[in-house]
Prior knowledge:
The protein folds into 2 domains: about 1-70, no CATH class; about 85-310, Vaccinia Virus protein VP39 (Rossmann fold, 3-Layer(aba) Sandwich), CATH 3.40.50.150. Helices cover about 45% and strands about 15% of the residues. It has helices at about 1-15, 20-40, 45-70, 85-90, 95-100, 105-115, 115-125, 140-145, 160-170, 210-220, 240-250, 265-275; strands at about 130-135, 155-160, 175-180, 195-200, 225-235, 280-285, 290-295, 310. Strands 3-2-1-4-5-7-6-8 form an 8-stranded mixed β-sheet, with helices on both faces.
Amino acid sequence: MRLGSKLRSHIASLLREYRWLAGAATTASGLALAMAIEFQGQPFTALAAAACLVVTAFTWGYSTRAFRMPPWRALTHLQRRQYAETWDALASSPGAARAAVSGKQDEDELRISAAEPVRNLLELASIGAEDEVLEIGCGVGRIGRELAPRCRSWTGADISANMLACASDRLRGIGNVRLRQLLGRGLSELGDNSFDVVYCVNMLAHLDEVDRWRYVQEAFRVLRSGGRIFLDNIDFESDEGWAAFANGVRHNQDCEPPPYTPRFSTAAEFVLYATRAGFGQILVHRRLPLLIVTAVKSGRDQQGGGIGSTQVPPRKVYPSG
């Protein structure tokens, strides 16, 4: 039974990665059948070609229909906090993994999509050549590939083995890159005071609030004194954020939402996490539709209760450039 399941999974991955495969097999089977009839070959040959045509045509039609369906329909058996299972399923092939993290299967488009987040990180977290940087929820290394050449070292941590496998392929040959699989909802695999910058890009939206808080708390632990944290999410208080939320309600009101459905954030939520974790110099930046919060680990290594200097500007929109 397990062998059959693996075989089906492998075939599904091939069909998802190479959408043309089923169509090409159907065309080839049709040509073989036509030739068998035209040249009056052995009945067995024509029968085999006809059987292949039926199977490949069915597979082509079924896969075309299935891959048009939202991937969450295959994940309704998973709960929201089954993060590893959810993202492993979404990363069933390299192309599927790229699409899951950015909506772009094409490698060139994936790299282009990283430009704005990298620009935000360089500007707002002040990442420099001497920094050791950690990304929580690195996915396929979309950001890491562009950021690694700009810092001393880049570590990508993720709970999904499939995502990390894809990241390993994409980042091969970049010498200052490390990948770590997270086996729980935290950073227990990483040591205290190990990094200068910790960031989460397009990740916290997919977590429950308790896990968002846990990662902020853990980020404080693994940061060195003076280290910076960078958090982002869709700004729930913005017009763009509300429109996206209302649109999701309208389209999903009659069905179960996928386990990775984004949940947006407010400035108050992120500021609270950072403050309670012990960060200071907390700043809110709005680059619509994103809400970004940055903060600094002060010299007082007093996790879980220190109140730093919190600066929350009014609802001013900062330019993206």
